[in-house]
Every structure is written in structure tokens, then in C-alpha cells.
Amino acid sequence: MQRLSPLDAMFLQQDSPTVPRQVASLAILEAVDNPLDYDRLIQVINERIDLVPRYRQVPRSVPGALGTPLWVDDEQFDISLHVRRSALPRPGTVEALHELVGRLIARRLDLDRPLWELYLIEGLTGGQVALLFKAHQALVDGSETVDLAQVLLEEAAHERDIPHEEWNARTEPRATGLVAETLSRNFRRPGEALRITEHNLGRLARKLPLIGGEGQTPQGALSTDLSRHRRFATLAADLEDFRRVRHEHGGTVNDVILAAITGGIRGWMLTRAEPVTAKTSLRAMVPMSVVAEDGLPTSLGSKVRGHLLSLPVGESNPVVRLHQVSYALKDHRETGSAVAASKLAALPGFATSTFHAVGARVADSETGRGHQIVITNVPGPQDPLYLAGEALAEVYPCIPLSGRRAVSIGVTSYHHKVFFGIVADRDAVPDVDVLAQCIEEALAELVETVEGRRTRAPRGRQRPAGR
Hints:
33% of the residues lie in helices and 22% in strands. The chain is α+β, with helices and mostly antiparallel strands and 467 residues long. Helix 8 packs across helix 13.
């Protein structure tokens, strides 16, 4: 039996109706004559779940809080409780898909069962099917356990024979046995016992706002008391557009993505009549892969460290905005600890989803730094991936909200496209689709600087007469 880390235990303890601690991703498969059905999906998962044993385990508390909870086999494991089927009403529009995903990512996982769910969503326009992967932040740490999408998606279109063993749950230990084993372990590993004590003290502090808890998040359009409901929006763009802007103005594709998001937030705030001045900025937590010693480790050859970035929302010129973002990230690139995007994209399977989960963990472990938005950007493979022989067409990350942060943005590049997934609090951001449109327009502004033409005035300025 393995013990939850203090960070995992914190995520488990902080899970609440308004802050469900789960990371998700929406995958859409190419339309085919015989689309993936529920029975085939169950079969594929059963063939691969042996690769991730924790997907059949549940956390069990130790009496007296002598240690963090332990992972034990779920003796009542029933895969049909985790793999579910849903359908969109006709005609299966993108808007209906977004509405359904918003409801599903707001729904808490059952903490008495293994901490994951997978929804097969049918009825999309054109005969496509979608898959929504959900996993608790205490489950996917990128080291002991990777995201289920990484296990199911593979480079080959043909189906492989994967060895499968009959699984039998190990009997859950009695409370007295848990206490005895925990005391013995604490005696053998005093350093670990100290971290557990620190975790328990931190748990108490989080219940006392005047003593501890989450750092003070600045007020503004992106800050709110979270509700129980979420909205979801997506945006897809050509990767070549980002590369052209990078080639013309310097920096990296990541810089261009962040500059487009910055411009999109600026435009969105202006549509809401929010105060925007030349000095307006937002603090973003941008987790990045590093080879340095600090950061959360992964089993994928690197660690993930949080980078606090000031987004120059007040800058009206898109090129200047890009240069400011690029300059702010210059130190990260020049330290030699940054992991090249090409290296991350070349990892086997769909490691992208695991890195998004680890990035969300990093962001939530650094709440005291007062960031207003979390942005995860992970480059994925440029060759097509397949699930049960069917090609993956689109994939959108869903990064959880926490604290008072009303919006989070996940970005994945895959198969020559860049996919944005935007999660927002339903009450605070009813116009999340406008934010997605504004990001698209901000990217178009940057592309127009490369093409040497301006077909529209920058958002917030009046279009000249006669145009």
C-alpha cells in the first residue's frame, strides 16, 4: 500500500461542491462509418487499466490522522460506474457540447470510489463522438500515476494485443492494522512523519483565514467567490499562424500563445466595460517543464515548476504586447533549465494530458503567490493519435478553478493545430464564449502584422470612417 503525499492529501481535503479538485480533457474523434461505441470503449479500458493500478484504488484515512490516507484496492470496483454514456440533443451543436461539458466538469467525483470518470458523448454533428476524461488532482501526479488519456491514446491506427491479467482486489486492512503500520513507518521515516505533521498543521491553518489559507487574490474581472457551476468554451487555430508570428517577431510559440491570450483578455474586459489603462496587468501562473532540481517531478523525464507572469493587458499594440511577454520569459529560457517543446511533443502516447494535470497541481500548490489566472500550455505530438483505431481530431484541456479565480485556460498543440480549453465560473463569466472569440481576434491581429495588412482596428478603438 502506498501513502498519499501531503499535496495529494491536501487536494483530497480541499475538495468541495464549489471547488471540485479534478482535471479534465475533452477529446473529439474523427467521424467514421462505425464510431466508437460504449461496449468497445469498456473493452479497450479493461485491456489497459492494468497499466494504471491506481484507477482501481481508493484513498482510506488513517485513524487519528497519524498519517496521510493510503491507497487501497476497491473491493467493489465496477467499471460501469466510471465509464458513462451521454448524448447531445439534435442537432448536436458545439454549443450543446460546451453546455454538457460545463455541467460534467462541475460535478464532483465520488470520493468513496476510484477518483476518475470517462464519459462517451454521442450525437455530435457529423457523426463524431467525444470523450471527456475526468480525474481527481490527488490521482494523477505524473509520477506514480499518469492520465488515462495517455494510456488509451497511441500512435498506431491498428489495434494491439496487450497482456491482461485477471484482477483481484487485495483485502482492505483493518483500522488497527493501519494504525500499527503507520506508527511503525513514522518511526522508521521521521522526515516523512514531520511532513505529515506539517500537512495536518496546514489543514488546520486553512480553516482559520486570519492565520493561513490561500493567499489574497487581487480583485478584478477574473476574481469571484466560486459557484457550484461552470461554463466551458473552446478555440482551435492553426499552429502555422503562431510559427509565422514567432518567425517574424522572435520569441517562441509559447510567447505568441500567451500574447494572444493577453490580447484576448484585454478585448474581453473592454467588452464588459472593465477599467483598462496602459498600466493594467494580470498575474498569471504559467507552469513550465524544467530540468532543474525544484518543481514537481514526473515520470516523463522532467519536473514542472510554476512561473509567475505579469500579462500586459493594458498594452494596446499587439506586437509590443508580444515583446513584453517574450522579455518576461527570457530569463526562463536563458537559465538552461527549460525543456524544449520538441522534446515534450516527442514523448510517447499522449503525455500532454498528464503534463496539464501536473501543471494544475503546481498552480494550486502555489496559491500564496496571488495569481489571478492559471494558464497551462503543453505541446503535443504533431502526428495523429488513435483510440481503438479511430483518429483523434481535437483535444481541449479543462483546468480546474480554485481560490477566487473565475477563469482558467489550458492550451494543447496537436497535429498542426492549437486547441484552447477555457473553464469559467458560470455566474461570474456568462460570456466565456466572448472571451474565446477575443483570443481568436487577438491572434488574428498578430497574424496581420506578419502579412502587413490591417483589416480591422484593434479592439477598443474606433474604426476610421469609410472603412
